[in-house]
Amino acid sequence: MAYKLPISRRQLLKSTAAGGTMLAATGLAPLRALAAGPLTVGFIYVGSKDDYGYNQSHAEAAATFKKMPGIKVVEEENVPETNAVVETMESMINIDGASLVFPTSFGYFNPFMLATAKKYPKVEFRHCGGLWTKADPANTGSYFGYIGMGQYLNGIVAGHMTKSKKLGFIAAKPIPQVLLNINSFLLGARSVDPAITVKTIFTGDWNLPVKEAEAANALADQGIDVLTMHVDSPKVIIQTAAGRGLYVCGYHVDQAALAPANYLTGANWNWAKPYHDFITEKLGHKPLGQFVRGGIPEGFVKMSPLGSMVTAPARKQFDATLADIMKGNFAIIKGPMKDNTGKIVVPAGKIYPESAIELEKMNYLLEGVIGSTS
Amino acid sequence: MSAPSAIGLWGVPLAMIGGAVRVSTPYIFVALGETITERSGRINLGQEGTLVFGAMIGYGVAIMTGSAWLGVAAACVCGGGFGLFHGWICSYPKVNDIAIGIAMMQLGVGLAIFFGKPFIQPAAPHLPAIPLGWWSAVPQIRVALDVNALFILGLALALFLNWAFRNTRYGLMLRVVGDSADAARAIGLNPDRLRLYATAIGGAMAGIGGAYLSLYYPGSWNEGISSGQGLMAVALVIFARWNPLGCFFAALLFGGAGALGAALQSVGVTQGYYLFYAAPYVLTLIIMIATSSRSHSLIGAPGELSITK
Amino acid sequence: MTNASPDTLTGMPRVEVAGRPEALAKWARHAEALVIPGGALLAGLAVFSVFLQVLGKSPLAFFQAIYLGGLGSAFSLDNALTHASPLLLTALCVALPARLGLVIIGGEGALVLGGLAAASVALPLQGQPYLIVLCAMAAAGVLAGGLWIGMVGALRYYRGVNETIASLLMAYIGIALMNQLIEGPLRDPASLNKPSTYPIGQAYRIASIPGTQVHWGLVVGILACLCSWVLMERTTWGFAARVAGGNVRAAQIQGLPVGKLIMAFTFIAGACAGLAGMIEVAAVQGNANASLASGYGYTGILVAFLARQNPLAIIPVAFMLGAIDASGSLLQRHMGLPDATVEVLQGILFITILFSDTFYGRIKWLNPDLWARAQP
């Protein structure tokens, strides 16, 4: 399709330093094919790979391997979490000869990926976001990023920039990864001012533009002045919030270009890092990681550059916290902590660093979050 | 950035009014267009596809030309094209209009997604809002009453159609054709031609509805932009008993009830949000059950309409 | 509604002409039912080829992909059949009420609730024999789906509520209900990032047909189509339904139990969709979750209309759709086309096939009545 657009997607990405410089930024060495034939790698996305959000963050990473000699990338988008994903995986294996497959949506993990992996023991499967355990097939694994730390940093900036002391969070579904993001955003803001609250609206699904816009308006009506989100395509929320004069913190990919005057910062994925590691291991005939996690220090997650409106105190705390996070094993969930129904969810003395497995099973919203997990 | 003070529970009714004004416009346009089509004795279930294609092409043209109104025009023209195509195919004997509509829905959505990929990321110019809330000092009220010109046009169209169906020659012709093709032929009308025009106008209006989605509210092209609004609007026509003013109010009701889920969560009523989100559907169903009756279920239904035969 | 068999579809007065070779005429009518949709299919493919050519893609590569992905190997054939399997049942949810003149478009809601009911019933029955659990699940699915669409039928009969809009509204309500329950009271806390009910248990899953990767749900679907055909074509009930569908008033005057017919047919229709949901849970998902609402109900509408509401024709139509769906993968991967390509293809094919309805009885060499007129 040859449209002449004022800005193309590529240009946009370059201007926000997310695409072409991705590999250079994380200091990854170029890959060299050691295997005889080309290695076919399959990527499967649940939505459109141009969604300007979650799926695009994966597709951009996959695209960095397309030009590399010795590697063939096969992709499929809009694959639902049904038997369809089994067919896609098998088709990639049987017809394209894929020997490394990345199903990137939560619902692909169990039963679909696990069942397919049992059938094809020679193919490696790595799932994004699943909680892999040793009981799962030997040729499977999972990877994910500690993006909660990114939402914590978002929260710090939001905490400094809010006047009403009321923040908003628009989320799709109350699943552990989302709840951790909401709680992290709250804790970041409360590290600035413990009186801050976070109002949460669940829309019920990952891509519902009208409901997301309604949620942003409803929050704005309630005096919320900084907003962030966890949905698949944050564009509508960012634009609606900016239209109401709110500040926003982004998610998934850098979207500062949409609202330069309102976009404070954002928590963004850098999937090229884990993909690069897996593919290097596969090419070198080394065992692939099975429970791969990484945060900002490992280069799995990065922050969008701070907007020019971000105040000096906010910058200072942001930079200091970022430096602490870079040391690794940063912890924000520390007991005693109560959830928003008054129940103690983290006992006194208990500290969960970002890598704690318990955080991947989070089922509560902390005191200070106005919202419900069901 | 001046932080407006919170308005608490008043947010719920306000969100519903605001939601009704913001969300209803696509329903109004699709439903009014479909009323014209159905009054002629045809049903076009493909309006969903037309709506989504209109959203895509409106956004794309707005990006390429820099003018949101040109986007609306393009969506209107393309929607008219879809309508013409539907009307033309269905003018052949034995072609089922419901089935063709469903197939056109698939085609329209498919084409929109196919050609819409490059437009997901860039931002298009938006349609302007008319600040009808200038009299209020409360910013929330001012925002809720930011009304798009298309909404006002929709209201005007509803009033006009309500009058025109009864009082103009074309309105009468349309109704004759819709009630009995044989009677229409007997007085020298060509049912197929009138239906062709009626479907084309219906499609053009659905295209405008789509452009509203992508160019005003929520104001972005996205593959999930519609989530069934076109299909629902066709259903609202039956709900409104083919009455243009009824369509307008049904759309308002639907938009207002749709705002309930988010508004309630924003004031702290947080449990059971899926059920709140289902409010527009439940409410519509309840009203239908309450207002229908066994003996005269289809008052106002065009006699030639396949879906109610 | 065009649900008559081909010979009545000509719509022309059947002039009995002396000397018309009856056997040949019958053959011609059968040929018509094959030639016309077949020709339409080819025409649709031709239109799509032009579409591809305009975009600078090779139509040849496209046919190769369709063959490779949908038909070319045992593996692809399996995929096509797996895709087809839920569509058989959801199409019946449209085709059965259509016989009564009812347009039901809310099968998705019945499917989702059928699946949810099946998963809920399996929970307290853990440890019971396989067949008992499976039958209980099927019964729950059938009941939930049947009652949901049966309610639409009841609303239609007792309150005169339009069934098309009621079924659509109830589909949205059903999906909301399922989401609320699987993220609330019925949620398995261990279902972390994909809120689901508790699993029904590996022991109670529906297996694959030996030698294939297709689950037994396919056989259930085909049997359901066959039974529905018998019901519609070979029983008094089916005949009565056809009369009522043609003219309600006439049916009532003749003393046909229109109300019972409507309730029975909508119940069976919903039961089919509910059963599809149960199979999706027991054979594919292993629990009930939001992925139950992935559009099988809506695709079923299309299948039913393409099959002209004939339960037997649903089988090949669903298979064709399955094959196109299954090859959609390869269009993306091998031709670099976007995911929506397969929707465009389907849209074009369906429009040409539906359009071809107009040729029934109008092609001279296939219509004995026209032969007669051609030679006075």
Low-confidence stretches of chain B: none
Q: Give the low-confidence spans of chain C.
A: 1-18
Largest interface: A-B, 57 and 57 residues
Order of helices and strands of chain C: HHHHHHHHHHHHHHH
| Inertia-based shape of chain C | globular
- If helices are DSSP runs of H or I spanning 4 or more residues, what is the number of helices of chain B? 14
How much strand content do the residues of chain C show? under 5%
Helix content of chain B: 55-70%
Task: Specify the biggest β-sheet of chain B.
Answer: 2 strands, antiparallel
Mean pLDDT of chain B: 91
Measured by DSSP, the beta-strand proportion of chain B falls in under 5%
Contiguous helical run count of chain C? 15
Taking all residues together, what is the mean pLDDT of chain C?
88
| Secondary-structure content class of chain B | mainly alpha
Report on the structure:
The complex is a heterotrimer of chains A (374), B (309) and C (376). Chain A contains eleven helices and 17 strands. Chain A has 374 residues and is an alpha/beta fold. Chain A folds into two domains: 163 residues, 3-Layer(aba) Sandwich (Rossmann fold), CATH 3.40.50.2300; 188 residues, Response regulator (Rossmann fold, 3-Layer(aba) Sandwich). Chain A has a seven-stranded mixed β-sheet, sandwiched between helices. Chain A is globular and about 60 Å long. The N terminus of chain A is likely disordered. Chain B has 309 residues and is mainly α. Chain B has a domain of 215 residues. Chain B is 68% helix and 2% strand. A two-stranded antiparallel ribbon of chain B has the order 1-2. In chain B, helix 1 crosses helix 6, helix 3 runs antiparallel to helix 4 and helix 11 packs antiparallel against helix 14. The longest helix of chain B is centred in the N-terminal third of the chain and has 29 residues. The mean pLDDT of chain B is 91. Chain C is mainly α and 376 residues long. Helix content of chain C is 70%, strand content 0%. Chains in contact: A-B, A-C, B-C. Chains A and B meet through strand 7, helix 8 and helix 9 of A and helix 1, helix 2, helix 5, helix 12 and helix 13 of B.
Features:
heterotrimer; A: alpha/beta; Rossmann fold; 2 domains; seven-stranded mixed beta sheet; six-stranded parallel beta sheet; 11 helices; 17 strands; 21% strand; disordered N terminus; C: 376 residues; mainly alpha; 0% strand
